[in-house]
Amino acid sequence: MTFLTVAFFILFVITLGLMLLFRGQTARQFILLAASYVFYAYWDVRFLFLLIFQALVVYTGSLLVEKFRFGKPGLAKAAMGILVGIILGLLGFFKYFRFFTESISAITGENAFSALHIILPVGISFYTFQSISYVVDVYRQKTEARKSFLKVSLYISFFPQLMSGPVVRSTHFLPQLDTNPAITWANFEKGCQIFLMGAVKKVVIADRLSVCVNAIYDAPAAYSGASILGAVIAYSLQIYCDFSGYSDMAIGVARVLGYDLGRNFNLPYLSRNLTEFWKRWHISLSAWLQEYLYISLGGNRKGKMRTYVNLMLTMILGGLWHGASWNFVIWGALHGAALVVHKLFLTYKKPKTTTTGVKTLLSIVGTYAFVSFCWIFFRADSFETAWLIISRMFTWADGISYTYVYTVLFALALLLIHIYCYFKTNKEGTYIHLDWNKFLPKVLFILAILLTAAFAYQGNQAFIYFQF
């Protein structure tokens, strides 16, 4: 079940109606949990039991961690380690078992597990990260272990962000579950508008750009270097609009229900360097990697060399989290190396009081170019395909010329939006908020819905991050 289906609309209307009918905190949370289980089971009911099992493990284990935390810190640390090990073990089996067995078979020439077909549960990476967030936060005494299984399971499986995030920290979401957020007209108004913005990004922009991207990435040897460059640019726009579009829709749905998921994207292609990029791109994941991986590895507390090693490890593991493929490892390693280079640059850079507009522009363009280059490894189905794309693009090879007009139109539109936000909101993205108490905003909103339906791409509507 995805947001842009009749089934989801029916589920959402029923859920909202029941929450308006039953206003007690516990009753509403039961309704949300039931809706979350229906939402997940709609994809494959078998994996609903995996989700419930993980919630039970996290719930009981976190209570033990908190019990041992006061008086038996050694046992608390051991319990926390075992819990995280179980959670990561489940993720590793479903997501990486095939990757490791295929890598071993490539070396040995034999694969004893070739007949074993393992299906990757949708959303397992995201609810795994949230489970770890809760367990570690309890151990670090940043949050209390909740005695209500309802709250813990709802935190792990809250349906707006269950499939593809944002990765919501326990310290951000659990306090909301300790209250009974109101369902208000203001939240409904704001949430619907955020959802519509996400839908436009997804079905109008990302899905149309996928036509160009899929055609060229499926047969790069047939296309010219210029056409391949166009596809690389198109994919940078596609993945941004696809993933930020999903995040916007999730944030919008949660807002209507009275919950705040935070912000997940903030005009990342305006970043002046890779460090800034990762503060603007997939903000919830970046914060998670920093808090629970980079800092756990030692962060910058053990000298410069260890800091650089920790950065590389964090980004490589972050790349591997995205998918069980060496392409993702390379993608993560490139970003890790760039972050190390930026830290080295800051270490030896002479302090200056001002930065010229030209240098800022060149920094933004250079960062975007590097990020787009790295996306090649993210999108290509193999290292060989990625290398072929790179070699043909940089040698400006001859081939079929494919000028996709939507790449030009959407690139120009997004550029103008970014420029507007840069000067009007100090490089901060903003959600459009129309006042529905006035007649014209109502007309504009309805018109936007009609135009979105008219220009929506009718082909494949799968979200890119569902595969992760």
Average pLDDT over all residues? 87
Our count of helices gives: 17
Beta-strand fraction estimate: under 5%
User: Into how many domains do the coordinates divide?
Assistant: 2
Radius of gyration: 23 Å
SSE order, one letter for each helix or strand:
HHHHHHHHHHHHHHHHH
Q: What is the count of β-strands? A: 0
Percent helix range: 55-70%
Major sheet details? none
* Gross geometry: globular
Question: Which class of secondary structure composition applies to the elements?
Answer: mainly alpha
Which segments are poorly predicted (pLDDT under 50) over 5 or more consecutive residues?
A: none
Cα end-to-end separation: 16 Å
